[in-house]
Amino acid sequence: MEVKSFLIYKNEVYYMFKKRILGLICIVLILFSLGCGKNEQKTRVITNKNTKTDVVDNVTKDKNEKKDDTNIYEGYKGPVQGEIKYQEGRPATQNSQDLKASGDIKSPYNIDLVVTKDFGHSKMFSNNVGLVKDEVGMEVLFRNLDIQTAYGGGFVNAINGLESKYTFFSGADRKKEDWFYWVNGILAPIGVAEYRPVDGDTIWWDYHEWATTMFIPAVIGSYPEPFRNGFGGKNPGTVVMYTEKFKKDAEALKKSLMDKGVKSIDVVPYNASNIEKPDKYHILLGTWNELAKDSKRLKDMNWKNKLEGVYVEFKDGKLNALDNTGKTIKSFDKGGAIYATSAGMGSIVPVWLITGNNESSVRDALNILVKKSESIKSYFGAVVAEENIISVPFIQ
Which fold has domain 87-209? Predict the structure, then answer.
């Protein structure tokens, strides 16, 4: 009942009103005393937004949430830059800066940080490094790598001296060569100055040309990711779909994934319509002809290949391994392949293929994931043929 109503009927409900007023006064006094106590207990939370320090009410914090105190991080000196969002039209030189690696920290939270160039062919850095809970990925880079930023500080222009040939160049000197990054094998749809890594993530940076392929939405070289950790702390689950002769193989893959820490896995017969707009991660297991027969999506991907970041092509009964321009470098009558695709830039639900141009080739490729998965680390895609594991794309 509102105060106005009380005044209208004060003669009729005087005593009831008086009791309620006294009760309200008591409640106000209690809340006031709690408020005074609250001001004496403050929790310092690093938000990574312009290194601002926020005060969070302990009373409203989830009691089950693990408190994150900077004291649990050994060697941590606080955020360097904080969260910076890219602004359209901002000059590259505005607030650009060079920062030397400040040094890793010891933390109960960790991620794998990988840096390569030329589509994973050359390794530059690979370490399991410390993470501060809820910080942005740029902070992890600042501690472990020499970083040059641009466009207001939200764009990684150079890592350990290897610089974009596009940002600050013009004329004949300007080339389409830049840094790109993936989180658990998924091309991140946001900048690293905004993405907040989760314990167990793999963040992989690669420097390569992009004249032919602007975006490569999914790569295989962080396996068993994304199936184990998902993206941004969210995991929709995994579906292994098999064609008729590969049911036992699909079950073996499921067991292998579970042994690697993947939790939610369904094994079902292949249905081409399920990969048109998938809401879970999918792994397709079968010969190419079986998988592509009823799938326009796979047929389109196969002929577009390099335009979608795919460097494997099935054509005229052969398996072709491509270079970064889409040119066939090697061709196999019998060969298997492991590669990934998705709906394009911004999609975080990739589809993986374990396939080949005959049954034995499919099983050869599957065997790599089940028994030798370390051999495809930092591979964009893999061709398995003639007892070799070939990293694709080849470099022109």
Answer: Ferric Hydroxamate Uptake Protein; Chain A, domain 1 (2.170.130)
